[in-house]
Design goal:
single chain, alpha+beta
Length: about 110
């Protein structure tokens, strides 16, 4: 399973303010010596940080979350896992749907 050709993780967040950017917010950056920015989450109107701060941290964790989900599903498939209970089947199907969306194969 591969989720596509996104910027590899891990990613980190960095708070930035004008004049470096037009609006205060969080850069989501590739965690390397260059710090390549992959996304930007602006601060909300009125100056409050949540939920934008939480959104930035969630986005930064995305590559590792995706990698973990791919690994877990791969392990289950190697063991010929078949969900027996409806709630497990629903979660299994949702995990596959998320991977398809992450790869741009579903909307």
């Amino acid at each position: 399973m591969s989720h596509g050709k996104s910027t590899p993780g891990p990613w980190t967040t960095q708070w930035v303010e004008p004049p470096l950017v037009d609006f205060a917010g969080w850069w989501i950056r590739k965690n390397d010596s260059v710090g390549f920015p992959v996304a930007f989450v602006t601060q909300s109107i009125g100056g409050t940080k949540p939920p934008q701060k939480a959104n930035a941290h969630l986005i930064a964790a995305a590559p590792e979350l995706l990698e973990s989900l791919e690994w877990a599903l791969g392990q289950m498939e190697m063991d010929a896992f078949e969900p027996e209970f409806p709630e497990v089947k629903k979660a299994w199907d949702k995990a596959h749907e998320i991977l398809a969306r992450a790869a741009g194969r579903a909307t």
